[in-house]
């Protein structure tokens, strides 16, 4: 029997986070580093089993920035079902890592980026509900948040610009309510409606 | 040299770290001896047993794969890789799973890992029925009358069966589990049985080869424990009788066998040790015999591994078979001579399974609410082998054995009395067990008289009615 030369990591959503577990026992080599973004379908390491190299792939549905410290050494022993990567939401990782916003472009999903540098709010006042919730349909001009720049509040709206379609479905916020954001930083994740 | 834990002087050749390719009770049994020898242990588990209490008995453990045995404990590649990446230089397979798989033994050798057992070539020979029978016949053991090797045709089968007399049985060479096997009571039925057994074997095992032997019903199952080193020395550690069975599953084993005289015991042991040396056997093994109702003993098969019931022999002889296995695997010569092996007193083992005796022995996985087997009730000594404690869950993926209780006394009566007290005062709650069956058998007059065979479970039917 010929085994496939590639194996998919096992994805589990736990407590709102995505975790990727090893699908087999072996020696993990060429693991990706903390802070890098993983997108479904790409290779994210090599597992050596009895001298045979199996490519590890990111499974469908996984997307995010590596938030844990994967083994850096070559040939790190790992068991079946052991945690390899823990993925944080793309925006949150960005702010912490202080990385350039362009990195988020490697994500296959659609993202709505901040038009300015400032503080971003999910709601118009602390008592109000968020502007958008998962599954909402966003059209041209639909407000999705507030941005505070020098004590001035401006609505952030959905616009068919920067590669976004005229209408899209809201998936989730990528930054926390009240987070400091930079110009061009991804604020929301969207999918085509 | 400084003695390590257990007071043993470690040999410079002894392994520093071994992987135990098994689960549960046998894995713990092996780990106990390894620790006494100062060897570090690596355990393995499936994802269903992650966090199980028994895993803390190893220095470290790794998860092999999913819950089903074929995803974890039956995966040679994962196990050998686990040994390589944990730095273990030998693998002890225990029993079941891959213990008698020659490809697994060969894979270990290929990757420079010592397999604690005989060579892959010997396992292959003993794993197929007709080569095993031919080898043992050549080594001087009595075999059941029948074909020398495989049958060429139905005509050959007919001629042979007419010569040895009916009933006869045709069996698949690669057989197991009763498939590819036909009982033939008269000459007219042979041709049909030959064709259907061959077709069934071809479909089930990819090998339609058949052999034929005289059919012996009932009889007693008696086996001899063998040890052989890599320098041509083979010893026997006397026999065990395992005739109390249900559906070919052993329930109670004892030694000495009530069916053998002291002279017959000595002769059977010596003959078995000679045969093991003649076939070039190494490590621990067991030669199984059928003692027919008419009297003579016949070779049945050889198990090329540690047996579940090995503690019976250890209680009688004071030897640690797992220790000897590891020493032989580490190229040590046997330091005991046949004359040093003494069998003293009588030992009985009862297998406690999580099965419901009142409901056709249906397996009953579940949570053990309480689990206490006393070992101080006397008059003899008791040894309990288990991997479970109260509060543990018995997983549904593996076999139902939850504990083995071994009682040793100066006489058979004393061993039976000790076992009755021990099991009678055991507290196992949460799952049904086979303890009621054992109590009924041990209390029966037939068992006390030593009059039983593989077809009967003395005391059980009457107890069920009562």
Could you please describe the fold and organization of this structure?
The complex is a heterodimer of chains A (193) and B (466). Chain A has 193 residues and is mainly beta. Chain A has two domains: 6-88, Beta Barrel (OB fold (Dihydrolipoamide Acetyltransferase, E2P)), CATH 2.40.50; 101-192, OB fold (Dihydrolipoamide Acetyltransferase, E2P) (Beta Barrel). Chain A has one helix and 18 strands. Chain A has a five-stranded mixed beta sheet, with no helix packed on it. By secondary structure, chain B is of the alpha+beta class. Chain B has three domains: 9-116, 3-Layer(aba) Sandwich (Rossmann fold); 145-214, 2-Layer Sandwich (Dna Ligase, domain 1), CATH 3.30.1490; 220-465, D-amino Acid Aminotransferase, Chain A, domain 1 (2-Layer Sandwich), CATH 3.30.470.20. Chain B contains 14 helices and 22 strands. Chain B has an eight-stranded antiparallel beta sheet with strand order 13-12-9-10-11-14-21-19, with helices on both faces. In chain B, strands 3-2-1-4-5 form a five-stranded parallel beta sheet. A three-stranded antiparallel beta sheet of chain B has the order 7-6-8. Chain B starts with 16 loop residues before the first strand and ends with a helix. Chains A and B meet through loops of A and strand 3 and helix 2 of B.
């Amino acid at each position: 029997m010929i085994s496939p030369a590639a194996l998919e990591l096992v994805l589990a959503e736990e407590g709102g986070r995505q975790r990727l577990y090893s699908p087999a026992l072996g020696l993990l080599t060429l693991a990706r580093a903390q802070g890098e973004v993983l997108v479904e379908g790409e290779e994210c390491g090599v597992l050596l089993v009895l001298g045979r190299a199996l490519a590890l792939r990111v499974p469908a549905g996984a997307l995010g920035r590596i938030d844990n410290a994967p083994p850096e050494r070559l040939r790190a022993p790992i068991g079946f079902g052991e945690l390899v990567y823990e993925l944080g939401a793309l925006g949150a990782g960005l702010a912490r890592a202080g990385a350039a916003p362009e990195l988020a472009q490697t994500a296959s999903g659609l993202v709505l980026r901040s038009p300015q540098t400032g503080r971003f709010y999910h709601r118009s006042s602390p008592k109000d509900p968020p502007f958008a919730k998962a599954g909402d349909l966003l059209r041209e001009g639909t407000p999705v948040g507030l941005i505070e720049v020098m004590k001035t509040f401006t609505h952030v709206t959905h616009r068919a610009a920067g590669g976004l379609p005229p209408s899209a479905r809201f998936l989730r916020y990528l930054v926390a309510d009240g987070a400091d954001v930079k110009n061009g930083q991804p604020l929301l994740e969207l999918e085509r409606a | 040299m400084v003695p390590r834990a257990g007071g043993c002087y470690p040999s410079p050749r002894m392994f520093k770290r071994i992987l135990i390719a098994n689960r549960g009770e046998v894995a713990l049994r092996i780990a106990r001896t390894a620790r006494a020898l100062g060897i570090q242990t690596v355990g393995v588990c499936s994802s269903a047993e992650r966090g199980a209490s028994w895993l803390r008995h190893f220095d470290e453990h790794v998860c092999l794969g999913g819950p089903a045995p074929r995803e974890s404990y039956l995966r040679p590649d994962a196990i050998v890789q686990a040994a390589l990446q944990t730095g273990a230089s030998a693998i002890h397979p225990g029993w079941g799973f891959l213990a008698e798989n020659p490809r697994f033994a060969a894979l270990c050798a290929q990757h420079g890992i010592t397999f604690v057992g005989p060579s892959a070539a010997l396992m292959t020979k003993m794993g197929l029925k007709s080569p095993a029978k031919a080898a043992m016949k050549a080594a001087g053991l009595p075999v059941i009358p029948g074909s020398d090797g495989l049958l060429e045709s139905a005509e050959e089968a007919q001629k042979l069966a007419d010569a040895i007399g009916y009933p006869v049985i045709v069996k698949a060479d690669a057989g197991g589990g009763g498939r590819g096997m036909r009982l033939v009571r008269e000459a007219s039925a042979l041709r049909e049985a030959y064709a259907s057994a061959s077709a069934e074997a071809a479909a089930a095992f990819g090998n339609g080869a058949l052999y034929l032997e005289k059919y012996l019903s009932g009889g007693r199952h008696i086996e001899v424990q063998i040890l052989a080193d890599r320098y041509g020395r083979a010893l026997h550690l006397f026999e065990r009788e395992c005739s109390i069975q249900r559906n070919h599953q052993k329930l109670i084993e004892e030694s000495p066998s009530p069916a053998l005289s002291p002279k017959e015991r000595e002769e059977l042991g010596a003959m078995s040790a000679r045969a093991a040396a003649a076939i070039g056997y190494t490590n621990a093994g067991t030669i199984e015999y059928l003692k027919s109702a008419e009297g003579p003993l016949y070779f049945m098969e050889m198990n090329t591994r540690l047996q579940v019931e090995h503690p019976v022999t250890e209680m009688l002889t004071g030897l640690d078979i797992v220790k000897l296995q590891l020493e032989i695997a580490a190229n040590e010569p046997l330091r005991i001579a046949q004359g040093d092996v003494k069998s003293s007193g009588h030992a009985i083992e009862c297998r406690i399974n999580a099965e419901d005796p009142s409901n056709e022995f249906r397996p009953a996985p579940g949570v053990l609410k309480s689990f206490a087997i006393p070992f101080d009730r006397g008059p003899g000594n008791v040894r309990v082998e288990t991997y479970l404690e109260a509060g543990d869950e018995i997983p549904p993926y593996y076999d139902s054995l939850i504990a083995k209780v071994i009682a040793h006394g100066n006489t058979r009566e004393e061993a039976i009395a000790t076992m009755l007290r021990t099991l009678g005062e055991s507290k196992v709650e949460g799952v049904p067990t086979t303890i009621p069956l054992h109590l009924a058998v041990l209390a029966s007059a037939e068992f006390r008289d030593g009059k039983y065979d593989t077809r009967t479970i003395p005391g059980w039917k009457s107890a069920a009615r009562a």
